[in-house]
Design goal:
Structural class: mainly alpha
CATH architecture of the largest domain: Orthogonal Bundle
Number of domains: 2
CATH class of the largest domain: Mainly Alpha
CATH superfamily of the largest domain: Hypothetical protein af1432
Distance between the termini: 70 Å
CATH topology of the largest domain: Hypothetical protein af1432
Number of strands: 0
Order of helices and strands: HHHHHHHHHHHHHHH
Number of helices: 15
Strand content: under 5%
Largest sheet: none
Radius of gyration: 21 Å
């Protein structure tokens, strides 16, 4: 009797379909390896929610990351803030800047460090990531200052800066598995980004961001907004605010791959926030000017 020939292997599946679905443990593991500046930014946001927090507490937190402490002192002494005399140490710089400005400054430095290189999974350069994050944050901040529907300026700014942290985490996981995936630009076929991520990896970047931010013990309302801002399901204002802020950033710097569909119709978000197209365009003009000033001050990317 002739031996039974081996069964031929099935045709090679697409690389996206062969990826083992990512688990929360995968995301939390890579979150521990994100730049320390981002984690310090999250910690500063958390302690600023405590009314008993002092400027010394914030200074101690900034000192946890020497590179961050150096950059804060360097930028505080730059022309952007225009102090008449130079700050001699970090405590003095933080005292001059105040809580809100220190938070903004640490946040923009953290966003620079989060993505320094090209994210091949998404086709996003480090420069585009930073400019989109900062413009989203500035737009959320500006809209909050100009409209009373949502009044927490610091949280709005933080939401804008961290909205894409999940993309960074997913990219870092997948670059260690280079034979198991294809990029969005190669395989997304213009589909909505969250749909492509869920099918390809079993988790979206907004879900990953929520997992990371929960681990960082950030406020539940902030986590909820970042999880849901692409397709808000209720009238909670922060997700809608972040959606419009992201749309403004997209208008100024170009939409991140796969996200255009989420900003194509903002009517519902405009209704919830009680804003109109004229105000959004005013926001875009102001954010563009602010971004140019900030980029000049910090040296861009």
């Amino acid at each position: 009797m002739q031996p039974t020939p081996p069964t031929p292997p099935p045709p090679e599946a697409s690389r996206n379909n062969s990826v083992e679905k990512l688990r929360p443990q995968d995301i939390l593991s890579v979150a521990q390896r994100l730049p320390t500046t981002a984690q310090v930014f999250a910690q500063i946001n958390r302690i600023l929610d405590d009314p008993n927090t002092s400027l010394d507490d914030v200074a101690e937190m900034v000192r946890l990351e020497p590179v961050l402490a150096f950059r804060v002192l360097q930028l505080a002494n730059g022309a952007f803030y225009g102090f008449r005399t130079a700050c001699s140490d970090l405590n003095e710089a933080i005292t001059r800047l105040g809580f809100r400005e220190v938070n903004r400054l640490v946040g923009l430095i953290a966003a620079q460090h989060l993505c320094a290189n090209f994210m091949s999974v998404y086709g996003i350069s480090g420069e585009l990531f930073w400019s989109d994050s900062l413009c989203s944050a500035l737009a959320c901040e500006w809209l909050t200052q100009r409209h009373a529907t949502y009044g927490d300026v610091r949280t709005a700014y933080t939401a804008g800066l961290l909205r894409s942290v999940g993309k960074v985490a997913l990219h870092r996981i997948l670059v260690d598995r280079p034979m198991l995936w294809r990029s969005y630009l190669d395989s997304g076929e213009g589909r909505p980004l969250l749909e492509w991520e869920a099918e390809s990896f079993g988790v979206s970047n907004t879900e990953a961001a929520g997992t990371i931010m929960t681990n960082w013990k950030l406020p539940a309302g902030l986590v909820y907004a970042v999880r849901n801002y692409c397709m808000p399901q209720d009238d909670e204002p922060l997700p809608h605010l972040l959606r419009i802020g992201s749309a403004v950033a997209s208008q100024l710097g170009g939409a991140l791959p796969g996200e255009t569909i989420y900003w194509s119709n903002l009517d519902e978000s405009m209704r919830v926030l009680e804003v109109d197209g004229e105000l959004i365009q005013a926001c875009a003009r102001e954010v563009e000017a602010m971004f140019d000033r900030v980029k000049s001050a910090v040296g861009g990317k």
